[in-house]
Design a protein that fits this description.
Family: Belongs to the pseudouridine synthase TruB family. Type 1 subfamily.
Organism: Chryseobacterium oryctis
InterPro entries: PsdUridine_synth_cat_dom_sf (IPR020103), PsdUridine_synth_N (IPR002501), tRNA_psdUridine_synth_TruB (IPR014780), TruB_C (IPR032819)
Catalytic activity: uridine(55) in tRNA = pseudouridine(55) in tRNA
Number of strands: 11
Shape: elongated
Number of helices: 6
Keywords: Isomerase, tRNA processing
Structural class: alpha+beta
Order of helices and strands: HEHEEHEHEEEHEEHEE
Distance between the termini: 7 Å
Largest sheet: 9 strands, mixed
Helix content: 10-25%
């Protein structure tokens, strides 16, 4: 790999670690690439689809002329491995905030869970979480929410292509979900809990596919302090 290769265009498949923001991962890549290949100050680099800090998995980073591919990649279908906990909720719909509103789940059966999951396959209406990167009047929704301001999120249409590989070990339910661009799996977890009547929140999330790109081909080595690109 050379500086000319990178500026002509390259795609990196990262396995984003837990508690990293997508912005941090891209910045780390940018710093390493610029330092090791003596790239210009305005070297272009960006990711093709945000992953929440509490999520892991596939983060696609495009650099050089391949940054033009970002909108196309962002539009591709996504796949996630998902784990939710039923009978309790959090304000963030994931593990960022503490558990609240505990409810009895003794009447929830495996059959009911399967029935409810099936209801979410197809085109659905979904409200993004208030703790999200969506901009409201120029400000990120999560900044407003963390400042204690009341945030009203508008619902939007999204598509769930499939929910499969369901495993139930109450209060935990895990499954693989395929979805369209713009789907919030945290909101899906919350909405499943509301449909069950006992609440739920997202405990684990791992993105496994974006279009034809797969997590099996991704690495987190680029984010290690001792990694050098010359070893590729």
């Amino acid at each position: 790999m050379t500086a000319e290769d990178l500026q002509s265009g390259h795609i990196f498949l990262l396995d984003k670690p837990l508690d990293w923001t997508s912005f941090q991962a891209v910045n780390k890549m940018k710093y390493k690439l610029k330092r090791e290949f003596n790239l210009p100050k305005k070297f272009k680099i960006g990711h093709a689809g945000t992953l929440d800090p509490r999520a892991t998995g596939l983060l696609i980073v495009c650099c050089g002329k391949f940054t033009k591919k970002i909108p196309e990649i962002q539009d591709a279908p996504k796949e996630y491995w998902t784990e939710i906990k039923i009978g309790v909720q959090t304000e963030s719909y994931d593990t960022e905030k503490p558990e609240i509103l505990h409810q009895d789940i003794s009447n929830i059966t495996e059959e009911l869970v399967y029935q409810v999951l099936e209801k979410f396959v197809g085109e659905i209406e979904q409200k993004p979480p208030v703790f999200s990167a969506i901009k409201i009047d120029g400000e990120r929704a999560y900044n407003l929410a963390r400042a204690g301001e009341e945030v009203e999120m508008k619902s939007r249409k999204t598509t769930i292509f499939y929910i499969k590989e369901v495993k139930i070990n109450f209060p935990l339910v895990s499954f693989t979900v395929g979805c369209s661009k713009g789907t919030y799996i945290r909101s899906l977890a919350h909405d499943i809990g509301q449909e069950l009547g006992v609440g739920a929140y997202l405990t684990q999330l791992r993105r496994t596919k974006i279009g034809d790109y797969k997590i099996e081909d991704a690495t987190d080595e680029f984010l290690n302090n001792d990694f050098r690109f010359e070893s590729l």
